[in-house]
Amino acid sequence: MGILMWLVLGLVVGVIAKFILPGRDPGGFIITIALGIVGALLGGFVGTQFGYGSVTGFDMRSLILAIGGALVLLVGYRLLSPRRMFS
Questions:
Q1: Which has more confidence, 87 or 24?
Q2: Which residues contact 8 (CB under 8 A, 6 or more apart)?
Q3: Cα distance between residue 65 and residue 61, in whole Å
Q4: How far apart are CA 30 and CA 36, in angstroms?
Q5: Torsion of CA 72, 62, 54, 13, to 10 degrees
Q6: What is this structure's pTM?
Q7: 4-32: average pLDDT
Q8: So where are the chain's domains?
Q9: Average pLDDT over residues 29-37
């Protein structure tokens, strides 16, 4: 996949992940793309290790793996971020 396709996939996956798990997360457009791209890499790695497939193109399986990876990153961030009680 080319760089432009990774950016598009990252944006789509990041927006879907933030839609599924809404909340007060930092970041705008660039962070959403980065969340999606890193989520796609994580989902592809885990999917390949367990034999579910990989993120090699823009199809339904790779989209689901990428969204799963982005959701794992988002949940991990929320678990590790310090909670602000009075903001």
A1: 24
A2: 58
A3: 6
A4: 10
A5: -40
A6: 0.76
A7: 78
A8: 3-18+29-77
A9: 78
